[in-house]
Amino acid sequence: FRWAPNTRPRITLLEITPPNPTRLDELVPSYDAIDYDGHTVHIAAFWRHNGAQLPIQPTLPTGNFVRGDVIDLTLQAQDSAGGVGRLDGVPVIELMERRPGLVDQPFDVG
Asked: CB-based contacts of 36: which residues, under 8 Å, 6+ apart?
């Protein structure tokens, strides 16, 4: 009988695009994860809208969001040996609205 310990996978990078989203933008995370044991890693994205859990999905499509809504993201990495690592409650954005007539100038409405 031989027992080999399993280390949890780690999420090492998270970026969300676009960097200054409005309620009309789909949010797309890109991330890097590593498993020091060499196992295959699967990532699940848990989005929250004003604290309420949304369905698990890799991106957050445009929706019924309004100015001032807060979106955050938890990533869960699971390796093929059952190890689980999380990057919890990353505040992604407070939705911004574009000023009328200024197409490319988002501003914070916080």
From this structure: 7, 10
Q: Give the residue ranges of the chain where pLDDT is below 50.
A: 97-110
Sequence-distant (≥ 6) Cβ neighbours of residue 40 within 8 angstroms: 79, 80
Residue 49 near residue 71 (C-beta atoms within 8 A): yes
Structure pTM? 0.73
> Taking Cα atoms as reference points, which of 80, 82, 23, 30 lies closest to residue 58?
30
- Torsion over CA of 99, 101, 102 and 108, rounded to 10 degrees? 0
24 within 8 A of 52, measured Cβ to Cβ: no
